[in-house]
Amino acid sequence: MEKKTHIGRAGEFFIMSELLLRGWNVAVPVVDVGDDVFVIDDNDKTTLRVQVKTATAERCPENENEFKGSVNLSREQLRSAQPVELIYVFLLRIDDRWRFLVIPRARLHAIRRKVVDASQQRSGPGRRPVDDDKAKTDDLVIPIRVGATKASAWDESLDEFLDTWPEEFKVIENGPGARRTAKPDATSGEDPAPSSRP
Question: Quick one: CATH architecture of 4-169?
Fold first, then answer.
């Protein structure tokens, strides 16, 4: 069974679950205007915007160890820096597991610019990608390929982003909501019973 709405929401919940386990707080906007999740560090209130894009992957006919899928982005969103920066998460559902790429907007935009600029300088036949500033549509299709340790889009390597959390999403180990461990009992030398406090 495949329902696009179901797999899209499943991907969002998967990413929210992983971010919660990394110590971040997550909030879902009531009205989705391009941000699926707001992610907050409760220590210093650092906030990031997350856009999750999900696809069901297909096995590549020319290489059975690689899978492919595509996601759509807004060109305007990709090239627009904001005070609260955006992180993209691309999820591919492969059989019964997720593979993911977590890419800051600025990094993805730089990769896209490299691809477009290189194509403009190339001579000879072949279709060239449209310059995003001159495109007639806001939709941008990103074809993603994933192998055991490799990933790419537009034939550019995305290996460093595959199944990896960037520094922006470092693990938060303390702060509000963190479990506090009691100090050892100085008189007995033994550890006290675990606190029942969450």
Answer: 3-Layer(aba) Sandwich (3.40)
